[in-house]
Amino acid sequence: MNQSSLPSPSTRGPADHDIRDQIVAAANEHFSQYGYGKTTVSDLAKAIGFSKAYIYKFFDSKQAIGEAICTRCLAEIVAAVEQAINEEGLSSTERFRRLVKTLVTTGVNLFFNDRKLYDIAAFSASEHWPSSRGYDARIKGFVLQVVREGRELGEFERKTPLDETVDAIHLALRPFVNPLLLQYSLDVIEEAPTLTANLILRSLMP
Amino acid sequence: MNQSSLPSPSTRGPADHDIRDQIVAAANEHFSQYGYGKTTVSDLAKAIGFSKAYIYKFFDSKQAIGEAICTRCLAEIVAAVEQAINEEGLSSTERFRRLVKTLVTTGVNLFFNDRKLYDIAAFSASEHWPSSRGYDARIKGFVLQVVREGRELGEFERKTPLDETVDAIHLALRPFVNPLLLQYSLDVIEEAPTLTANLILRSLMP
């Protein structure tokens, strides 16, 4: 999984990845049960059996822990999309369809099969955390990659400025990318991604 | 203003429009100040100086009053869009641009310049009130009208089944039509409508 261009959560103290991971895993578990919004670092420390001071050696705030959870979760979507669109021998049209489909299925699974990940992702999106902005930038990067390749192959039109096309597609995908909008797209989630992908692909026709 | 295809709020009792309008206006005022969610019909009755029983002569529940307010508010958007797209001598492309622009500017003004109308509209949308479903259907009807006309004039492509095109456009406009999504579109409201309209218009090219 390539997370290199997702910003890392704000951390400090010993670079002991095992303990940091242990805290993130325990926090994830705890937030899943009690919610992210209502839990304080003291609650969390008590629940996972570390002192508050010890947790603060690794994370400088509750948000930093939330960020770490969110970064992991969003990186899973990014990795799934990356894998889906980079398979060899696909047309750009097919890559674009896979981008939309993978984005939606992975996002719905991660945010809504475990509702509390939705809570954290929603916090992240509504407060413009780096994890959320990084995620958004990665998705936009995938759109750019697929559109640019499709243009080079003569599969997509080239008259519209590339950045306008990419911005517009990125906006059209917002209801499936941004968890705050995705929550209200669940009742159209069966048909909406395909209809939207088809509309966008028609707009890309040379 | 043609409201004939918007469902009327559930009302009963004397068909005295003046008094009904008076209640709706007073309720609108009261909800604007105290919020829709938290106010009971008793609170409302006290505040506007009618007995609860008298209010129940005209409306069978608080929701029916909320519906009446919502129907009015959404009918304003419908009327504005209708007027904007039916001006004579416009191309279908121009009609479509006006549809999107009027929808967004009227919606943003009505829902967010008076935040409490947003509250009621959000209730209506999340609980699929008839006012909200009727509004959605009217907007879809406008999309159908413009697309069909554009096809007849040879301005838009005709290969895609008409209902698929209309469904997809209606979905693409959801972030500006549905107040629940619109609240999260406010930070992109300057550029998003034009970018989206342009993308949709490219998808309609013959």
TrEMBL record, chains A, B:
Matches recorded under SUPFAM superfamilies: Homeodomain-like (SSF46689), Tetracyclin repressor-like, C-terminal domain (SSF48498)
Domain of life: Bacteria
Pfam families: TetR_C_27, TetR_N
Keyword DNA-binding appears in the UniProt entry: yes
HTH tetR-type domain mapped to chain residues: 17-77
Keywords, comma-separated and alphabetical: DNA-binding, Transcription, Transcription regulation
The entry's DNA-binding region: 40-59
This protein's name: TetR/AcrR family transcriptional regulator
